[in-house]
Amino acid sequence: MRKKQADNEAGNSLIGTAGVHYAAYRLTLKGMIALPTVRNTPGTDLVVTSLDGHHHANIQVKMTKNKRGKFWIICSPKKFEERKSKLGRNDYFLLLRPRRSDDPMPAHDSHEINELEGFMLTAQEANRELSAHLKYWKHRNEEPKFNLCIYVDKGPREKGWKLPPHSKNRWRKRWQEFQI
Predict the structure, then answer these.
(1) Is 148 helix (H, G, I), strand (E, B) or coil?
(2) By three-state DSSP, how is residue 128 classified?
(3) Which of 117, 92, 119 has the alpha carbon at shortest distance from 102?
(4) Distance between CA 22 and CA 36 in Å, rounded?
(5) Which residues on neighbouring strands pair with residue 121, listed in sequence order?
(6) Which domains, and CATH codes, for the chain?
(7) How many beta carbons lie within 10 A of that of residue 28, not counting itself?
(8) Using CA atoms, how far apart are residues 152 and 18, in angstroms rounded to an integer?
């Protein structure tokens, strides 16, 4: 049992690493310098700078290998409370999943490798999403049953959290058009 769990964790770590390198590749093609951080750097997987070094972004990348993935696990409620005020205007979350046949393919990317669909949130948007998830559990007078998540494809429960509508399309477009 322990070996299977260890193998699964190693596999998930490799999936995450692949996502970080894919994001670095895509950002580099757009003319930015994208540097993966050392493993276990809290909250930042990529540091991205403009070529002149005057502008930067810190990106936390989350990836799933599941094409049907609707949500990404971000952190525990305790870590969220500790980190939410530390995130600034240069901090982003990038959620990646394998591209599905029904996903819109941007015309300008049709000639490039674009195997993954991406959704990019600002730190403020991520905080709002995670706060809504935490508030859901508090409203039920329950402790969260698992870590806090960001839902891209919102079901009936998440739609009741009173979050801004059409966020999925806005996040997808931000990733497609992201520039520093």
Answers:
(1) strand
(2) helix
(3) 117
(4) 11
(5) 93
(6) 2-177 (3.40.1350.10)
(7) 13
(8) 20
Is the pLDDT assigned to residue 127 strictly greater than 70? yes
**Closest Cα to residue 126, out of 157, 94, 154?**
94
Strand partners, 122: 92
Contact call for residues 146 and 71 (beta carbons, < 8 A)? no
Is the separation of the CB atoms in 63 and 45 below 8 Å?
no
Cβ neighbour number for residue 64 with a 10 Å cutoff? 20
Residue 73 structure tokens? 């696990």
What's the pLDDT score for residue 143?
A: 87
Stretch (H or E) spanning 19:
helix 2-29
d(CA 60, CA 7): 23
Mean pLDDT across the chain, nearest whole number? 89
